[in-house]
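Fig. S4 source data, part A: sequence.
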Amino acid sequence: MVRVSLNDGDYEAAGRRLITLWESKGELVQTNAHFLWDGLSSKQLDEIGNSLNRDGASGSFPPDLVETLKDSLHRGDTTQPLPSPPSSQHRRKDDSCGQEMASHDQGSSSEALLQSVACLFYAGDYRTAAVKARMLVVNEASRSAGLYWEIKANQKLAVLALDEAGRNAPNSPKMHVLLGDIFRQRERYPEAEAEYKKALAVSSELAGALLGLSTTYFLENKWDEALSSAERVLKENSNHPRANLLVAEVLVARHEYAGAEPHLKVSLAADPEILPRVHALLGNCYAASDRVPEAIHELELALPSDEDGGIHYQIAQLYKKSGDPMAAAAALKVTQQLKQEHVQRDTVIFREIHQSLQSSD
């Protein structure tokens, strides 16, 4: 519930809960404080830091708690050292998780397993949490929450592995690229930019760093910078599929469809996982120049990536434009189904995660 309050921006409620936890489980808070900031934006982290400064100055927070939170906040969870040997209180937490798992193994519900996965995650046993989360994934009823916790646990394992590798090779440009990718995936774009630039300071034309930086700039709507970084890759390799795709993304966003087309055709040689995006953008380019049959064909090739019905909706509009109302109606029907399923998935994920967080708080 502390994290739910932080997500909502209700720092006063989060503070009250933290004080209560500190008084009863101080060692546990010290061990796991850095998890509170996982995935929060830079703006949120700044607000929390300012709030901690005010609370510390006013005396409304225990001084030791303020120092613990400020220390974990400044380090950031991607730079956390590998966990130290667990304290006695932490071991009791692990034992409690073990008891919940034993209960599950004897035939209890998936809800109990979900609670034990959350318990293991917050106790720092990410490997076991990931294994148990996989058990949730195979059950359709708990699949969404299982995927959530499996991804979270594997992210933590990856961060720990990167931390260890970073200590062995602190000036490795590839390490900075990997850290940049993690920050970008968590939407912490300024930190991602900083890591990619560190990599480029060591190796000025490293393609992975330039592509990561270009993608970050694009996600921040810094289109000129995104274009510049991607074009640096193309100077070395004009047929680079991902660099061409990034250039096309910027040009399509600017409605410069004719300029985007040649880059997208080169991108057709890209890895299969990004091909649906290439086809979707080509469909947009063809639609903008009234090449309706070609646009429909490309958008149909992009359908495997249509999770919320958006591509089906574009196809429906094109069928309507071409004078085929029956095909348009069929595509619109699928659009509505996918939209509803998307909302239902989000609702289920939120409810299951909220329940498991309540159980582990």
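Fig. S4 source data, part B ends here. The two ends are 6 Å apart (CA to CA).
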